[in-house]
Write a structure and sequence with these properties.
heterodimer; A: mainly beta; seven-stranded mixed beta sheet; four-stranded antiparallel beta sheet; globular; B: mainly beta
């Protein structure tokens, strides 16, 4: 089973600032990596798939990069609605698909 | 638009089974796979398995093998997830999520399953 790790666990950012979230896989997942956003009391929402392709309706301030074992989600200028928990997920070797433990982005 | 509507909250005793439904609309039911993902209180996301609504084939995470069964009813565009031998650690919100294959593009609203004696 591929183990996903994310850092940092919590990221405190001021509105308008840039946020950079990291995700690492225990072995290569090629570009088969997705990012999800989850707000309190809501279901997750797909942001990025294929490591760098934005899902339908996702603003351009969200971007993904990386391949193999190292990935990054960047939010270029944080808006109030972006404060949430972000999860990465690998879907290269499944079952199981595996999620990282999440990074909480909160207001500084 | 794509909508996934799940059944309501459940309270079960340890050892019992629970069956959660997920009714899909807004797309061709057999064109998208359906995942089940759960989230224990205050915890992260855990992938349980996937069903292909077209043929009914399934793939489960090893952790749930023998305890989980995913089925579908194409006549009502509904998928089901049944989890047996429930224990307190199974208390969680259970989500269905549809996608072309491996990603979870659209999510249901979640179903809270509480296991308590």
């Amino acid at each position: 089973e591929i183990v996903m790790t994310q850092s940092p666990a919590t990221l405190s950012v001021s509105p308008g600032e840039r946020a950079t979230l990291s995700c690492r896989a225990s072995q290569s997942v090629s570009s088969n990596l997705a990012w999800y956003q989850q707000k309190p009391g809501q279901a997750p929402r797909l942001l990025i798939y294929g490591a760098s392709t934005r899902a339908t309706g996702i603003p351009a301030r969200f971007s993904g990069s990386g391949s193999g074992t190292e990935f990054t989600l960047t939010i270029s200028s944080l808006q109030s609605e972006d404060f949430a928990v972000y999860y990465c997920q690998q879907y290269n070797n499944w079952p199981p698909e595996t999620f990282g433990p999440g990074t909480k982005v909160d207001i500084k | 638009q794509v909508q996934l509507v799940q059944s309501g909250a459940e309270v079960k005793k340890p050892g019992a089974s629970v069956k959660v439904s997920c009714k899909a609309s807004g797309y061709t039911f057999t064109s998208y796979y359906m995942h089940w993902v759960r989230q224990a209180p205050g915890q992260g996301l855990e992938w349980m398995g996937i069903i292909n609504p077209s043929g009914g084939s399934t793939s489960y995470a090893q952790k749930f093998q023998g305890r989980v069964t995913m089925t579908r009813d194409t006549s009502t565009s509904t998928v089901y997830m049944e989890l047996s031998s429930l224990r307190s650690e199974d208390t969680a919100v259970y989500y269905c999520a549809s996608g072309m294959v491996a990603t979870c593009d659209y999510w249901g609203q979640g179903t809270l399953v509480t296991v308590s004696s």
